[in-house]
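Example record

Each entry pairs one chain with its bound ligand, zinc ion.
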Amino acid sequence: MIDIEISEVGPRDGLQSIKPIMATADKKRWITALAAAGLPEIEVGSFVPAKILPQLADTAELVAHGRSIEGLNVAVLVPNFKGAENAVTAGAHKITIPLSVSETHSLKNVRRTHAQMLEEVRKIRALIDNLPANERPVFEGGLSTAFGCTLEGHIPESKVIGIAEQLIKAGCDEVGISDTTGFGTPNQVTSMTKGVWAAIGKDKLTGIHLHNTRGQGLANVIAALDVGLTTIDASMAGIGGCPFAPGASGNIVTEDLVFLLEGMGLKTGIQYEKLMQARKILRESLPSEVELYGFTPDAGLPKDFSMATPQA
Ligand code: ZN
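Structure tokens for the complex follow.
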């Protein structure tokens, strides 16, 4: 039994922002190693056209690979209905469509208004409902730029709550909140989560995607734990998440998150030594100029540290 689920987003969020393309065989080895370390869910890629993100052109093959690993929950991102069709064909267990709460960002990023995105959601719902019940993926709406947008600036919480309601009404099973820009602080995590819960129910928001752009990633995790969220996204070595400053990661670092949670007595199901083996595979598979982050892998676990998760 695990207390907190870490959803590993490195193969998608991480690799999409690294220019050199990681070989498919290396991605498979890395995903296998991540799953062997105990990560229960891995976002293996995104069904976007290869001409936009050539780094993720092998997503269908990685979904098939992920499905061959027993017990692993295989997640993917889809930008639209077409992407969802491909995700369903490939057999993803979970599909997430990101909807930017900032409409300016949505127009710039996917060239769609909120109304157009919600129409995609309705079409995807119909697609999923046409599948046999045991083949239906979980369908999540990702509330991106929920804590603020580099174009629009401050995003009122009422707007986030309103979009969450609309996503559920249009057919998402659940929503996730995402601090795409790293603007968030712990008090906002608490208040936004409670606001969304009050509108759509506690069972329809369980996860959060946080960035460490301004150093608040793990502080925000503590707020998420305190309020009662149970799934935290993180990226091995903190790759991706559009870091701006050298030495600062974008996504929160899986390895540091594991140390934090396990140190607090919360079981993640992770085998730490195996997690380091997965990191080694990542290091070997990327050009040496790509920086890997993480304080815990650099410093090592404290002497006599005892993981809450029993180690093999
Ligand atoms: Zn991210």
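The CA atoms of residues 263 and 305 lie 8 Å apart.
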